[in-house]
Amino acid sequence: MLRRGVAVSPGVVVGVAYCIHEVFVDPRGKPLEEQELLQELEAFDQAVEKAAADLRALYDKVASQVGSQEAEIFHAHEAILHDPAFLHKVREHITQHRTTAQGALHHVLNEYTSLFARTKDDFLKERLADLRDVIVRLSGHLSQVIKQGPAALGGEPLVVVADELLPSHAITLGGCEVSGIVTQRGGPTSHAAILARSRGIPAVTGVRDILRQVKTGDRIIVDGREGVVVLAPDPESEAAYRKLQREFVHRQHQLAENRDQPARTADGVELELLANVNGLGDLEQARAVGAAGVGLYRTEYLFLTHPSVPSEAEQLENYRRMILATPRHRITIRTLDIGGDKTIPYLGHRGEANPFLGWRSIRLSFEHPEFFQKQIRAVLQAAAVQTNPPACVQLMFPMVTIVEEMQRLRALVRRCQRQLRAEGKEQGPVQIGMMVEVPAAAINIDAFLPLVDFVSIGSNDLVQYLMAADRDNPKVSHLCQPLSPAVLRVLHHLIRTCLRAGKPVSLCGEMAGSPRGFLLLLGMGLRSFSMSPSFIPLNKRLASAVTTGQAAQIAQRALELRTGRQIRRFLAQQIHALCPDVEILDVE
Ligand code: PEP
Ligand code: MG
After folding, report:
1. Which helix (H) or strand (E) holds 31?
2. Helix, strand or coil for residue 127?
3. pLDDT at 152 over 70
4. Hey, which residues does 229 pair with through a beta bridge?
5. Is the pLDDT of residue 147 over 70?
6. Other Cβ atoms closer than 10 A to 53
7. Does ligand 1 have an atom closer than 6 angstroms to the CB of 10?
8. 510 CA: nearest ligand 1 atom
9. CA 562, 563, 564, 570 torsion: positive or negative?
């Protein structure tokens, strides 16, 4: 059976499904025998105990490190877990329907979801989210595969199938060699997609209800280029996809051989191809593909994957190691960008009606000076590290919307510098920059330029805000497209204004890695790009096949087109004519 979703990370893999969150799968099996029934009830009680122990440990940790108010959420979850009505419902379903505990949880979750779906009350909706969290936690303790680990799948390439891949899953994924990713939710710039691309893992998101059609252990094919998932493939299609898989890997290896060559256009103009990374783990790949440095270090992963709040000393150590391990010690460190689709329980961040328009990023950091200053101080101190060539450290602030925020940020950095001097602590030189990812800042860019040393365009957010289309919602992914006339006009204005003012400008959204986006931006005059490391070799190859004059003409023509479809088709034709060997590595 063939299912379509959103193509988010190119490549093909033929493997075995591993369903995270099995609770979303309808388990339908034969009715249990008496003995099995007792075992199931016993297993459920044990899962409740284990989940309660998890929640108590989380409460203690967060209460001691942040505050009891922030930790209260875990008490609320524990209350749901021990709610007699809830427990009764699950147990009754197990006995009456002679089903597994996993099956009963699935049923109860569905029942509550349809009940709550009719409510307009936000408070109740939040309770449903809490209930869902509790059920997923319980389900994790019941899942055999999660207990035994992916080794239970017989060493086949593993394809993770999940409702949604959360940034906090990064840890789990790190350990188990994921070769493919399929999710029910999320779009091309969701964090699942970014994670997949940064590791070069083929991925398809937005495949609705896939968890109802696949179970752990089933054969599955992921074509991250076309956005296709094949379930229970027949031998012919499996053979065809295996061939494509080999071809893809071969082309990737071939391209990676250009890692020691300079990034240059056909007329010899030097380009800077930098890597987007989430942590030390990604630097190995950045070096392997010949990245010129790191253009975006998303520090939130340090916070998300850390068991508790990282202290200033821990952060300093992390940033120092990052600077040392980064190619040419050239790194742009972005301050915590939390909120939107990424939440950290210990910051007490709760659901909002419009999280992407809400309390995220620096808006949240300003209200948590205890975190924010620690982070800034840690970066300033890390910049003092001795390297050869000397380190070039840039500190970048996300989601800047109004000029007053930038003024406040500069004042904050100055305060941290003064503090460190007064404390006699060593610090190094740091350039201060902003991400332009809010349309208000993009339109008003000239007012910001005197306040910043550099600009980095965050096209992922900029596009979602310009198009009023959630970057994580597959239903609107046809609108959330960087190659749209409105986006092109704003990018053109931004790049031109920065270049005229002589202000260094780069782009670090996913658009920089897609060959079509890359070609267009090159034509608009951009010379610095930051992308998932796996895209560096192919864009280096593409750059070598085009002159800056040709690219400028292409960008000019693209700016004259009226629809996104025309722009995308036109750029694909140009790439086909200039450099057909990068086509297989592009995403639709
Ligand atoms: C962006 O918005 O383009 C960006 C690079 O940041 P993130 O994807 O982490 O929001
Ligand atoms: Mg962003």
Report:
1. none
2. helix
3. no
4. 3, 222
5. no
6. 12
7. no
8. 3
9. negative
Most ligand 1 atoms within 8 A of CB, residue of 461, 471, 506 to mutate: 461
Rama region for 502: left / alpha / beta (φ>0; ψ in -120 to 50; rest): left
**Residue type at 539 in one-letter notation:** N
pLDDT at 141 > cutoff 90: no
Secondary structure of 7-24 as H, E, C letters: EEECCEEEEEEEECCHHH
* 509 alpha carbon – ligand 1 mean position (Å): 5
Kindly list the structural domains of the chain, giving each domain's residue range(s) and its CATH number in brackets, ordered by start.
2-19+156-249 (3.50.30.10), 34-146 (1.10.274.10), 266-582 (3.20.20.60)
> In angstroms, what is the span from residue 337 Cα to ligand 2's centroid?
8
Q: What is the average pLDDT score of the chain?
A: 87
E strands, 74-198, are 158-162, 178-183
Q: In the structure encoding, which two tokens stand for residue 128, read together?
A: 């449903």
490 C-alpha to center of ligand 2: Å? 16
Closest CA to 586 of 548, 509, 534, 521: 534
The model's confidence at residue 144, banded by pLDDT at 50, 70 and 90, is low
3-class DSSP assignment, residue 311: coil
Which residue from 190, 297, 298, 438 has its CB within 8 A of the most atoms of ligand 1, so it is best to mutate?
298
Q: What gap in Å lies between CA 565 and CA 29, rounded to an integer? A: 46
For tokens 């070769």, the residue is 179
The ligand 1 atom nearest the CA atom of 461: 2
SS (H, E, C) 343-382: CCHHHCCCCCCCHHHCCCCHHHHHCCHHHHHHHHHHHHHH
Residue 517 pLDDT class (50, 70, 90 cuts)? very high
Q: Which residues contact 235 (CB under 8 A, 6 or more apart)?
A: none
What band does 466 get if pLDDT is binned at 50, 70 and 90? very high
298 Cβ inside 6 Å of ligand 1: yes
> Is 0.85 topped by the overall pTM?
no
Rounded CA separation 274/506 (Å): 10
User: Is the C-beta atom of 337 inside 6 A of ligand 1?
Assistant: yes
Six token digits for residue 149 = 């680990």
* Mean pLDDT confidence for 213-223: 90
In 10 A of CB 294, how many CB atoms?
28
**Any ligand 1 atom below 6 A from CB of 188:** no
The residue written with tokens 């252990």 in the block is 217
Residues that are catalytic: 191, 508
- Cβ–ligand 1 contact at 437 (below 6 Å): yes
Residues 488, 520: contact at Cβ < 8 Å?
yes
Separation of alpha carbons 479 and 466, rounded Å:
10
Kindly state the helix (H) or strand (E) to which residue 142 belongs, with its residue range. Answer: helix 122-142
